[in-house]
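User: Hey, quick favor. My workstation is busy. Could you predict this chain's structure for me?
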Amino acid sequence: MKDIKTQLVHGGEPETLIEGAVCMPVFQSATFEYSGEGSYHDVRYIRLNNTPNHTVLHKKLALLERGEAALVLASGMAAISTALLSTLKAGDHLLAQNTLYGGTHGLLTKELKNFGIDYDFIDLDRGESWARYLKPNTKAIYVESISNPLMQVGNLEAVVEFAKNNNLVSLIDNTFTGPYNFCPLPLGFDLSLHSCTKSLNGHSDIVAGAIIGSRKFIDLCAEKAAHLGGSLDPHACFLLHRGIKTLALRMDYQNRLATEIAAFLASHPAVEKVNYPGLKSHPHYDRAQKLFRGCGGVLSFEIKGGVAAATAFTNKVKLSVSAPSLGGVESLVTCPVHTSHAGLSADERQAAGISPGLVRVSLGIEAAEDLKADFNQALDS
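Assistant: No problem, here it is.
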């Protein structure tokens, strides 16, 4: 098997260059000539996510995460909702990590009930408690490789074992680590999900999602996606395809940069706590070292003075943009209470451990010394 650095560039590419083009062309066509396809889902049409721009991405992503197949969709939330609705039906029950991205939390708490699907939240550090939440109709378990925004690393090996012992489909949102830092399928997860908007694309200019797993599961997801309509435009496919090729270069740098910035923040008197599993002080450091190549370019920290101080910090930084999202080449800062987790109530945020003074930082590819100087002046002011 070729190294992932080589697979990022060459994996899944057309065997013969299309009209000699070194770069994959954009097939900006909604429909394609019928050529005897035997199934509706094989007919080439943008909504079915099977144009040439889609299929090259499917092959590349499957290779990168060592899955049998992949499916790209219109957003990370399209991937999450499609995967869950392909796995669960009315009357089923889901177990989910208790610290989730706000959009996923909202999907579970506000939408799944309308489909007749029940859920319970579990603490990934308390594996001995999971069995008490099992029901005869429990069908799946959903977790994140690194939780958003508290940067927790759950006992993922125990999750896989628990899922297999109880015949559950295991789903993991692998956005924060990505295929370069962690491949969950060889560990035993059934489906790996991504917001490709983030590090996979890496340039903050598209919204996209992906599901990777066995051919059986991906076929189910593709059929569901065709009905739900969350298709990815071919030009967005082209940009994602291009962004993926530099993932190793960006992630190697961001792994190092985040570790350095996390250590700097931990030493600053205005900072109460830093959440980054690449720090030895993090409670899940050993777990992260065992599972991951690196911990990625995202960290969070609690600033003294609560939400007012956190908001002031995001307003004072000059190099970083105060904006949601992550994984781009530019550094971003945001207060989760205002953005990613604004949809949760104050009680729900408190239960999840998201304090009013929490700041999430997505590091880009700027120089470490420049970022430290900028963060230092914002914290001091």
